Every structure is written in C-alpha cells, then in structure tokens.
Amino acid sequence: MEIERKFLIKNLPADIDAYPFHMIEQAYLCTDPVIRVRMEDDSYYMTYKGKGLMAREEYNLPLNRMAYEQLKPKAEGNVITKKRVLIPYLKYTIELDLFAEPFAPLQLAEVEFESEEEALAFTPPDWFGQDVTNDQTYHNSNMATIFTREI
Q1: What's the distance, CA 39 to chain centroid?
Q2: Which whole-number Å values give the CA distances from 120 to 4, 76, 110, in the listed order?
Q3: Quick one: pLDDT at residue 149?
Q4: Do residues 108 and 138 touch, judged by C-beta distance below 8 A?
Q5: Are 130 and 137 in contact (CB under 8 A)?
Q6: CB 143 within 8 A of CB 151
Q7: Contact yes or no for 5/131 (Cβ under 8 A)
Q8: Which helix (H) or strand (E) holds 78?
Q9: Rounded to an integer, what distance in angstroms lies between the CA atom of residue 26 and that of residue 80?
Q10: Is residue 28 a contact partner of residue 76, using CB atoms and an 8 Å limit?
C-alpha cells in the first residue's frame, strides 16, 4: 500500500544541489488500472497502481533495459522525464520532482507515510505550496495521457 501526499512548490530550498537525486523516465501503458514502466537511473520497473488518491495499492516488478525499451513505445501520451531530489525532513524523505518539458517548470513534492492518520497529521515545510493530493490533475498517469499541455 502506498500512502502519500503531494504538494506544489512555492520556492526551492537554497541548498537543493546538495541533495542526492535520481533521473526518471516513465511511460503509461494503461491508466485504468495504472500500469507504468519506469527507468530510474540504471534500474527498470513495471508498476501497477490501484485506484485511490492518498492511499492505493502499488506493486513493482523488475524489468531489464531491453524489456523497458520494448514496452515504452506502446505507452499512451507523453513520456514523463523528471529529476527526483531526495530531501530529508524530520523522519521523512521528501521526493521533489522537477519535471522536464512538456511539463516544466512544474515542481511537485511527494511524502510517503506509514498510515493515513500519519499523512493527515503531517505539517509540511514552509517552502511547500498547495496540497494537491486529491487533485487527479497531478497524478503522473493523467499528466501523461490527458494533459498534454503545460500544467
């Protein structure tokens, strides 16, 4: 089960370049249910995501590069490319996504939790903007397949 909240960003932390990051490319084969293929640095995955906004099922299966490259052209809509910066905050890791075109300059932060109660009690840092957890516009699967213009 994945339990996470998503936020737009008001302004980036001044020391953003000091944090580790991953380069991610992902494409959506299906959106109901969500089936995604992802390249994260030198790793490859196929992911199934169930229905839901803040909490939903998620299963990852490993792929190799060849399988990823064969599946990616079968995807619907845009391939999403982003830099994911990993920022420690309290006991959490903020996953700050900096999107490439066609979604740049979109910046989204995701924080994962152990329970829905913990997620609802979370107080974000000052540099976070609007909570968009319940806005499907900001689900990457919708961005890739429905919203082909800049958000």
Answers
A1: 13
A2: 10, 33, 14
A3: 46
A4: yes
A5: no
A6: yes
A7: yes
A8: strand 76-89
A9: 5
A10: yes
pLDDT recorded at residue 147: 60
- Burial degree of 74 (CB within 10 A; 0-12, 13-18, 19+): exposed
The residue among 145, 119, 147, 124 whose CA lies nearest residue 5 is 119
pTM: 0.92
Separation CA 101–CA 149 (nearest Å): 10
> Which parts of the chain sit beneath pLDDT 50?
149-151
Q: Which residue has the tokens 């490259």?
A: 69
Angle in degrees, CA 94, 42, 89, rounded to 5: 10
The answer to whether 28 is a known catalytic residue is yes
Cα–Cα distance, 44 to 25 (Å, whole number): 10
Distance, in Å, from the CA atom of 45 to the CA atom of 23, rounded to the nearest integer, reads 14
Among residues 19, 28, 44, 45, the one annotated as catalytic is 28
Residues 6+ apart with CB under 8 A from 32: none
